[in-house]
Amino acid sequence: MGMLIYFIIIILVPILASWKVRSAYKKYSKVHSSSNMTGADVARRILNDNGIYDVTVEPVGGTLSDHYDPRAKVIRLSEDNYYGTSVAGAAVAAHEVGHAIQDHESYAFLRLRHSLVPVANIGSNFSWILIFIGIIAGMSNLLLLGIVFMLAAVVFQIVTLPVEFDASNRAMAQLVSSGVIRNDEERRTRKVLNAAALTYVAAAAVAVLELVRLVLIYTGMSNSEE
């Protein structure tokens, strides 16, 4: 029963977090901002206000596909946010510019996250293969190797948290100081940003829980081999 509850939790938590961000986005994407600025306009204003002129802004297909590409120095906004004038679009655009500002200022956690990407990708791709074989074959050493690979991916998830929260804090400050949103729009904007941050918290929490479960399995296997 305990394992059933555990698996229900790690399945439901990400689903609920994703539902919350999509719900908040859908609600406030229908609310136009008082400035009537498009997401593209918001991004360019904040970039200019911070003296960042080497980052471009362009539309990209999909919904909530917005991201900042540090290699190409491009902020890509989903078309609804790029062309739209909603509170949600302004919040998302400002958040992505927050990452561009982090990059411009060489924000330590962003640099650390970038350095972890290759290791995290390897960990994500190979850890479960090693873990599965280790558990099925009863090979604790192979399971331990899988856990080590998985640890890299978990560390990446944890390091992502301060990066995303900092980008959201920068977004709120920039939206207010630039006059893109009014005082009565701050609460709505923060709801969008907080909902988005929740998805990263959920992903990190699930990753840590799964890592702890596997460590306990490894400990049990090691004890039985003695």
Report helical residue fraction.
over 70%
User: N-to-C SSE series?
Assistant: HHEEEHHHHH
Radius of gyration, taken over Cα atoms and rounded to an integer in Å = 21 Å
Number of structural units classed as domains? 1
Enumerate the spans where pLDDT stays under 50 for 5 or more consecutive residues: none
Q: What structural category arises from helix and sheet content?
A: mainly alpha
| Overall average pLDDT | 91
For the secondary structure, the number of strands is: 3
Q: Distance between the terminal alpha carbons, to the nearest Å? A: 28 Å
Shape descriptor: elongated
* Main beta sheet: 3 strands, mixed
Number of helices, counting only DSSP H or I runs of 4 residues or more:
7
Strand line-up across the major sheet: 1-3-2
Strand content range:
5-15%
Helices, strands, pairings?
Blueprint: H1 2-28, H2 39-49, E1 56-60, E2 67-69, E3 74-78, H3 79-83, H4 87-104, H5 108-137, H6 140-177, H7 186-225
Parallel strand pairs: 1-3
Antiparallel strand pairs: 2-3
Helix pairs in contact: 1-7, 2-4, 4-6, 4-7, 5-6, 6-7
Structural notes for this entry:
The chain has 226 residues and is mainly α. The protein has one domain. It is built from 7 helices and 3 strands; from the N terminus they run H-H-E-E-E-H-H-H-H-H. The protein has a 3-stranded mixed beta sheet. A hairpin with a 4-residue loop joins strand 2 (67-69) and strand 3. Helix 2 (39-49) runs parallel beside helix 4, helix 4 (87-104) packs across helix 6 (140-177) and helix 4 (87-104) crosses helix 7. It is elongated, with a radius of gyration of 21 Å. The mean pLDDT is 91.
